[in-house]
Amino acid sequence: MKLDGRRTSSNVEDRRGMSGGKKAGLGIGGIIIVALMAWISGGNPLTAVMEQVAENGGLGSLTGTNTEVTSEQRELTPEEQELAKFSTQILAGTEDVWTKIFKENGSTYEVPTMVLYTDGVQTACGQGASEMGPFYCSGDQKLYIDLSFFTSMKSQLGADGDFAYAYVIAHEVGHHVEYLTGTLQKVHQQMAKMSQAEANKLSVRLELLADFYAGVWAHHDNKMFGSLEDGDIEEAIQCAQVIGDDYLQKKARGYAVPESFNHGTSKQRMKWFKLGLQTGDIRQGKTFECSDAEL
Q1: From 7, 82, 193, 251, which residue has the greatest number of CB atoms within 10 Å?
Q2: Are 175 and 60 in contact (CB under 8 A)?
Q3: Is 119's pLDDT higher than 60?
Q4: Rounded Cα–Cα distance for residues 3 and 267 (Å)
Q5: What is the DSSP pairing of strand 135-137 with strand 120-123?
Q6: Terminal CA-to-CA distance of the chain, rounded, Å?
Q7: Of 29-33, 145-149, 234-238, 260-264, where does mean pLDDT reach its minimum?
Q8: What is the CB neighbour count within 10 angstroms for residue 75?
Q9: What ranges make up the beta strands (E) of the chain?
């Protein structure tokens, strides 16, 4: 991505160097890390992920009891500092894009805060942990990222590149957009009254909408700043492919269990991200209006 000269966001809390509890809900990276850790250790990735989802209420929200947080300050590496700058530039881009889109639709965009942390972090939704990957907490309207996740993306899944990382951040911001429009709250209320299988179906639609919003952001960011370079789109598409429920389950077990999907298949995630990227039109994000076959 072309980011030279781009501003960084001031809506950032840098809590790196602090550690705490390990209990958290699943973010976009959560399903990756939980599944892969179970897979590498010889456990059942599907069971591990499903237990986390059932316990913590799915992507975009965290539950859990607070634990003591201790401070362990250390010097940050140049790579960590560079990733932090990159992440704050991407956040600034989402602020510019969504402020413009909300204004055009007669409303005001309330910017979220990005919290950079190491190992564990306290949130309004409970205790967060780096093993769960980036996540959004609607309780405080903040997205939480341990930047080491990007290294894990590269080493464990082969998903690399600055635009792939940007897609991860934009997806979490997409959950914030869902919160501001009331979609996130409405869907979580509905899911709480359903069986796990039925709740999973709604979760998929919520995740695909966040993927769509990530694409919408990329469309307008490129239009405003000319940020995309050759290979960028391929990076994001590759990332969307390797975090599909079917891809992860087949890689871990050799087969997939569709009724357990709660993020969407690789094909679905790529489809909705690309639709947002190609159109830039938030009206096209009809993941809750189309049939299962059309997803």
Answers
A1: 251
A2: yes
A3: yes
A4: 29
A5: unpaired
A6: 29
A7: 29-33
A8: 6
A9: 12-15, 18-19, 70-71, 113-117, 120-123, 126-129, 135-137, 142-145
Q: What does DSSP assign to residue 142?
A: E
Parse the chain into domains and list their residue ranges.
12-284
Q: Which of 57, 51, 56 is nearest to 21 (CA)?
A: 56
Task: Report helix, strand and coil shares of the chain as percent, to nearest 5.
Answer: 55, 10, 35
Looking at the DSSP assignment, which residues form a beta bridge with residue 137? 142
Structure tokens, 192: 């709480």
pTM: 0.80
Report the candidate in 262, 200, 274, 212 with the shortest Cα–Cα distance to residue 238.
Answer: 274
Whether 287 contacts 272, CB under 8 Å: yes
**Which residue's entry shows tokens 């072309």?**
2
Averaged pLDDT, 120-141 = 90
Q: Which residues sit opposite 211 in a β-bridge? A: none
Q: Are 93 and 225 in contact (CB under 8 A)?
A: yes
- Count CB-CB contacts under 10 A for residue 64: 18
The DSSP letter of residue 130 is G
User: Nearest to residue 212, comparing CAs of 193, 187, 236?
Assistant: 236
As a whole number of angstroms, the distance between CA 175 and CA 109 comes to 13
The Cα–Cα gap between 25 and 144 comes to 11
For residue 129, give both structure tokens: 């942990």
* C-alpha span between 124 and 24 (Å, rounded): 11
Using one digit for the tens of pLDDT, what is the confidence trace for 89-108? Answer: 999 999 999 999 999 999 99
**Rounded-to-integer distance, Cα 172 and Cα 86, Å:** 16
Q: Is 132 helix (H, G, I), strand (E, B) or coil?
A: helix
Query: In 10 A of CB 42, how many CB atoms?
Result: 6
Q: Average pLDDT of the chain?
A: 80
Distance of CA 62 to the CA centre of its chain: 13
Q: Which two tokens stand for residue 5?
A: 């000269």
